[in-house]
Amino acid sequence: MKTVKNILDNDEFNLRDFNVGDISWYSPFEYKDLINKNIKNGIEIGSHLGESANDIIKSFEHLNLICIDVWDLNLFKNDGFSIPNIDNVYEQFLSNIVHYGIDDRITPIKLSSEDASKIINDKFDFCYIDGLHNEKNIYLDLERWYPKLNNDGFICGDDWLFNTINPNKWSNYTSIEEHNVDFENERGGSLRRGLKRFAKENKLKLYSKYNFWWLDKNV
Ligand SMILES: C[S@@+](CC[C@H](N)C(=O)[O-])C[C@H]1O[C@@H](n2cnc3c(N)ncnc32)[C@H](O)[C@@H]1O
């Protein structure tokens, strides 16, 4: 597997100007205090143009991150986000990572979450899930990636509030909350329902803070 730096050094893409398009939906990653600061091996499912990868890498000094994405804007559009007018979004991601100065710490894998999970057998200290935000796909991503966590690994993701709470009210959700995992009470098809079902079936605790959610083993 090659880092973005290896790919650049091999002249495998044309370096472009920095561009992340319209990311008005983006919630910065501000949760490093909840996570062991010494984490080393991480994976992100759904990297888009590299904003969260950059935030995450810069939050943990020793972390290297594998970024999984199909880098296909049609998939992104179908998930309810505004999409930027960028032709080769993979090349733009690679370029942004170089401009962020983190190209030696990011390894991109241009595959679907499903296909990537079949070829990656490593164990991870950290897994950030931000792919498709619906019941079926969050559940599938958890099934694929939760077993690849180290014993004390941390699995988390974005968009706990998205599509459920009116953005005008998001500022009411800045404290840590633990949630019951009675998924039957959640709207059919929602991210929350998929998350809660996985948590319930695997006897995990489910927490959120603002738009960020994470799972923890029951103690
Ligand atoms: C919300 S965006 C990710 C945003 C990014 N994490 C950030 O905050 O900067 C979701 C991304 O997931 C990718 N994606 C959706 N479904 C996927 C799948 N099944 N496998 C791989 N990538 C997927 C889309 O291509 C899109 O780039």
Question: Can you tell me about this structure?
Answer:
The chain is α/β, with parallel strands linked by helices and 219 residues long. 28% of the residues lie in helices and 20% in strands. It is built from seven helices and eight strands. The protein has an eight-stranded mixed beta sheet, with helices on one face. Strand 4 (124-129), helix 6 (135-145) and strand 5 form a beta-alpha-beta unit. Helix 6 packs parallel to helix 7 (191-201). 37% of the residues are buried. The model has no long low-confidence stretch (mean pLDDT 94). Bound molecules: S-adenosylmethionine. S-adenosylmethionine is lined by residues 26, 46-48, 51-52, 68-72, 75-76, 81, 112-113, 130-132.
Structure summary:
The chain is α/β, with parallel strands linked by helices and 219 residues long. Helix content is 28%, strand content 20%.
Layout: helices, strands, pairs:
Layout: H1 4-9, E1 41-45, H2 51-59, E2 64-68, H3 73-78, H4 89-100, E3 106-109, H5 113-119, E4 124-129, H6 135-145, E5 149-157, E6 177-179, H7 191-201, E7 204-209, E8 212-217
Parallel strand pairs: 1-2, 1-4, 2-3, 4-5
Antiparallel strand pairs: 5-8, 6-7, 7-8
Helix pairs in contact: 6-7
The site of S-adenosylmethionine has 19 residues, from helix 2 and helix 3.
The first-level CATH class name of the largest domain: Alpha Beta
Distance between termini?
36 Å
Domain module tally: 2
Strand order of the largest sheet: 3-2-1-4-5-8-7-6
Q: What is CATH's topology name of the largest domain?
A: Rossmann fold
Helix-strand sequence: HEHEHHEHEHEEHEE
The total strand number stands at 8
What is the overall number of helices? 7
Small molecules bound: S-adenosylmethionine
Q: Please state the second-level CATH architecture of the largest domain.
A: 3-Layer(aba) Sandwich
CATH superfamily of the largest domain: Vaccinia Virus protein VP39
Q: What is the alpha-carbon Rg in Å?
A: 17 Å
The biggest sheet, with number of strands, parallel, antiparallel or mixed sense and barrel status, is: 8 strands, mixed
Mean pLDDT: 94
Helicity, as a percent range: 25-40%
Q: Catalogue the unreliable spans.
A: none
Shape: globular
Overall SS class: alpha/beta
SS strand fraction? 15-25%
